[in-house]
Write a structure and sequence with these properties.
The chain is built from 13 helices and six strands. It is of the alpha+beta class. Among the domains are: 26-52 and 350-380; 53-171, Bacterial polysaccharide co-polymerase-like (2-Layer Sandwich), CATH 3.30.1890. Helix 9 packs parallel to helix 11 (289-303). The chain is rod-shaped and about 145 Å long. The relative contact order is 0.15.
Length: 391
């Protein structure tokens, strides 16, 4: 049985197979050529569509500490964050929006968006390690598209999205940090005010006591025998009660000045607290960075709308808030910009036309031969079936 099974497996008769294929090819050469040309044309068109694109490049200048960028990196590749930005800025139907939404993620941020460092590998060879700063210059952004305008639109949209995300993250972080700082300052100033008021009460009581003593002993001021000023082996000097009154009154004046400064600082801190407490209530769920900055500026106007122009305390606080908003606007919306690109491609990038044409013809020829072979096999099988049916 073993021998019979081994004899039943016949080796492939390649010469006969090639002869059979040649015979069918001679009969169906027109079909083979037609299928080859159509398949080659379809393959070539597909390769051009999927492998050759128009590429646009751009450099978004954004000088930042590397630690800040690393903290925001997760937000850059967050699909929900991109969706929020597109909806908030009415860009859902803009060119490139659908492709960015489909491809956003850590992989896209590593291939299409690359951090530009201030030093190249060649520069590091000549620079001491202790002089290197941990910062970036910006982002190199590259995208491919079906047209030069489509590719450039994707680069522009990605740059605008990165810029807005950095603004949004920085703004929210500033609000939460400053809100915490003013709350801590409120407790600290309250304690300082308590201490200064106690000092003022003690100094006032001491002044009243010295006034009573000076009135009770009017002649005591003529003798320097009330309080020791300095002493040595030869002589001793004392302050009179009247001089002590002058000293205590001077201390009280200093304490009152310090108390007025603390009260002014506390009043300004309360204005800061009212503003940042309102800023914390701004709903950032469906707002972009530009929307949040606009809301912050409106809140500033609402907070100080009843303040008098002559109120220097309120004006100083308002100026500090305006300064913070202006610094954020300058840093993220003015200084963060494309210094190169987005470029408009003048030609496609990808494999060469000749190479793709060669592979298209090879694959098309294989498909044409396969078609002839399948047709010959089918007709041969059909003929055999008819012969058997006639018996």
């Amino acid at each position: 049985m073993m021998g019979e099974s081994e004899d039943s497996v016949q080796p492939a008769n390649w010469p006969a197979a090639m002869t059979w294929l040649g015979q069918n090819l001679g009969v169906h050469w027109a079909l083979c050529v037609t299928v080859t040309l159509l398949a080659s044309l379809a393959i070539f068109a597909g390769m051009v569509h999927f492998l050759r694109h128009y590429q646009s490049d751009g450099f978004l200048r954004a000088e930042r500490p590397l630690a800040e960028i690393n903290a925001q990196r997760a937000s850059f590749g967050d699909k929900n964050n991109l969706l929020r930005y597109l909806k908030a800025e009415n860009l859902m139907h803009s060119p490139g929006a659908a492709s960015l939404l489909q491809g956003i993620g850590p992989g896209l941020m590593q291939t299409a968006v690359k951090v530009a460092l201030p030093y190249t590998k060649e520069d590091l060879r000549f620079l001491p390690s202790d002089s290197l700063g941990s910062s970036i210059l910006g982002f190199n952004i590259s995208f491919a598209g079906m047209s030069p305008a489509d590719a450039a639109a994707r680069v522009q949209l990605m740059g605008d999205y990165l810029r807005d995300t950095m603004l949004r993250e920085d703004l929210l972080n500033s609000i939460h940090v400053r809100a915490g700082e003013v709350r801590v300052a409120q407790r600290s100033l309250d304690n300082k005010l308590i201490v200064k008021r106690v000092e003022l009460q003690e100094a006032s009581r001491k002044l009243d006591a010295l006034k009573v003593i000076a009135a009770r002993y009017p002649e005591a001021s003529k003798h320097e025998s009330r309080q020791l000023l300095s002493s040595d082996t030869d002589s001793s000097r004392y302050l009179s009660p009247v001089m002590q009154l002058v000293g205590v009154e001077s201390d009280i004046a200093d304490i009152k000045n310090e108390l007025m400064s603390l009260e002014r600082e506390a009043a300004q801190n309360n204005l800061h607290l009212r503003f940042y407490a309102g800023a914390e209530k701004l709903d950032p769920a469906m707002k972009s960075g530009k929307n949040l900055l606009a809301d912050l500026e409106r809140l500033r106007v609402e907070t100080f709308k009843d303040a008098s122009p002559d109120d220097e305390q309120a004006r100083e606080v308002a100026n500090k808030i305006d300064l913070m908003a202006e610094l954020l606007r300058t840093r993220h919306l003015v200084n963060t910009r494309f210094t190169s690109g987005p470029t408009l491609a003048v030609g496609r990038t990808g494999p060469g036309i000749v190479l793709m044409l060669f592979f298209s013809l090879v694959l098309g020829g294989i498909i044409g031969l396969a078609t002839v072979a399948v047709l010959g096999w089918w007709r041969a099988g059909k003929g055999t079936h008819l012969v058997r049916a006639s018996f």
